[in-house]
Specification:
Order of helices and strands: HHHEHHEEHHH
Number of helices: 8
Strand order of the largest sheet: 1-3-2
Number of strands: 3
CATH topology of the largest domain: Arc Repressor Mutant, subunit A
CATH superfamily of the largest domain: Winged helix-like DNA-binding domain superfamily/Winged helix DNA-binding domain
Largest sheet: 3 strands, antiparallel
Distance between the termini: 51 Å
Radius of gyration: 20 Å
Structural class: mainly alpha
CATH architecture of the largest domain: Orthogonal Bundle
Helix content: 55-70%
Length: 149
Amino acid sequence: MIRKLLAGWSSRDPLQTAFGALEREVMEILWLEGNLAVRDVQTRLTRPAAYTTVMTTLDRLYKKGVLGRVQAGRAFFYSPAATREELRASIASRVLTGLLQGRGDGALPILSNLVDTVGAQDGGDDLLRTLEEMVRDKRRTLRTPKSRT
């Protein structure tokens, strides 16, 4: 099951570039089962990995904010802090924020590339229409005065 899920990751997936192979496999295991101790994760891996390697990987993912953990006795139990889709969206948002940071004319090539890429996808016309609706909705939201409490 894990092998099949990992095979579905493409180079276009933000998770593919944000995490190493072991981190991705650990995340897949935890998304499937959640709330596992280090030994539980280690036994579910598709390739052998030392206990300390798995423990370090889980600790790093925890420190990145990708996993939550709860201590029970001497063991930590780890679970995802977000769904796969929430994590993808968060990574994509951080990348876009970084690219658009400069504002002004520097953002235009990025936005142009985004529109070209969206339009080139299967169903590109529908995606562009959805993008237009999202822009209109965001404009409305930005124009609406925020109430002060």
